[in-house]
Amino acid sequence: MFDFIVSKYNYWISIVLMMIGLYGMIAKKNLVKKIIGMNIFQVSVFLFYISMGKIKGGTAPIYWEKAVIYDNPIPHVLILTAIVVSISTTAVALAIIILIYKKFGTIEEDKILELMEKENRR
Amino acid sequence: MIVYIVLIPLLSSLLTPILGLINRKTGFFVTLINAILTFTIIIYSTRKVYIYGPERYFFGGFEPPYGIEYVLDGLNSVIILIIAFIYLLSVLYSKKSLEKEIEQKRISLFYCIMNLYFTGILGIAITGDIFNLYVFIEIASLSAYTLIAMGLKRESLMASYNYLIIGTIGATFVLIGIGYIFMATGSLNMADLKLRLPSLYHSKMVRTGFTFLTLGLMLKLALFPLHIWLPNAYTYSPSTISALLAGTGTKVSAYALIRILYSVFTIDFDVNIIPFSKIFIFLSLIAIVMGSLLALAQKNLKKMLAYSSIGQIGYITLGISLANESALQGSIIHIFNHSLMKTALFFIAGGFFYKQGIENIQDLKGIARKMPLTMSLFIIAGLSLVGVPFTAGFISKWYIVIGAVESKYYIVIPVILLSSILSLVYIWRVLEISYFGESNGNEHKEELPVPLFFPAMISSVLCIFFGIYTELPVELSKRAIEILWGY
User: Fold this and answer.
1) What residues make up the domain containing A55?
2) Which residues of B fall within a CB distance of 8 Å from A74?
């Protein structure tokens, strides 16, 4: 049992981070904290990809005479793309939050909803 | 040739803000030229696909399964045809309509993002590589968030933010799913995956990957319990964008779902190994009824149309999950038809806002006496939404019902009838208020200006046209089925 947990250590951490991230995205009321949750969620997926590229006894995928097996570099490359996507998502989200703060004067979700409801009733 | 389908929108998206520095008005013309050029190329290459068979393009000359490839075959040529057509109409509509709906200094940036969105959805439709699919999903979604946030109301910012949170969860789920499938097979090319996967169908990795992929796409598709982002996003964005998103955004995710279900996995896996069909038939039925019911309860015209969209998405997923030829054909025809009619309805709703500043259904009193022609277009598109015979909506519902009977899911028939009646009720509510409501003040006629009227007219007249001359959508969807069933 202990062996099972230790040998799959990366994947367990990835699952834990994923759950923390999802919880943050759903339960937090502050808009910026939601974005932090989103980043943790995405990073957990990156970790998952990087772990899958590791091959037992493999070396870094750079040409070397003594190397027998190389790690799989494709997941690394894919994750470079996904990191770029994640950064752009964060940038767009933060830009929207700045605009929200300018127009509503707050970034607490419940207060914004209150303000919107007041406007609708009028 | 087919690489230009994605390249031209991307280049024009880069060109728009640069030319926008010189003159703000150039944005519209660049976008219009882009839309016309892309549409022409798509018609040309679709015709070529029909005569010579699927066309492929390898990036950098690397052959699949090692390189990324673009494929144009019978299935996605239907989708990009309708996407490019809706985009062309939206661009024509946008010039006049945007005058009142976004800040004028941002107009060239708006067109830049709109072209980027076009790149994204075309890319989703045309790519043959599953990771490339994820990248294009993110390009399309990121530009959609920005476009929604461009609305002048402050609610549009919150709508955009909520869409961003939910959309990112969906896209990341797709990424996890791709990771699992890559882990099991070591390949990312769709055609290659189809060959490698069948021997691995009993592996838990593949099943988990499948679940994450479908769940992520369902979030993007706004199937009923996952639909929360859609109504506000459609309501508070500029009307051009509401029409564009309603006509293309969810449709392209539906296409991606069809691709994953039938072209990467096989029908045997969807029906027998994983009970995908059984679960999603009932979810779709709930979506059909709840979408129509919630549409009844709305006060805002655009919000009502958005909720009706959720119901109509239910039809599309119903056809997909019934997993037989007629139902899938109906589903593809419904993607085609629903794009046309929802775009027409959103165009007209935007027109009411442009001309009279009306957003709520209650304020439409007597508007049919002021704008009789515009209202008649609303009737045509509305009846098509209900599914009256001799309109486009009828054909697709007919095929889906036939498919349900073939698969012996008889419960589908009363649900579709119920939902048709409900949609008749909510369309009728608008018609009653606009024709019989007492208006206050003057009633002299003032129709929509031509740039707003023309796109709405084209799309609603096509609703009738494809209801009577059904050859084109039926023939196109038959080709698509041939690709999926592999003969």
Assistant:
1) 2-121
2) 182, 188
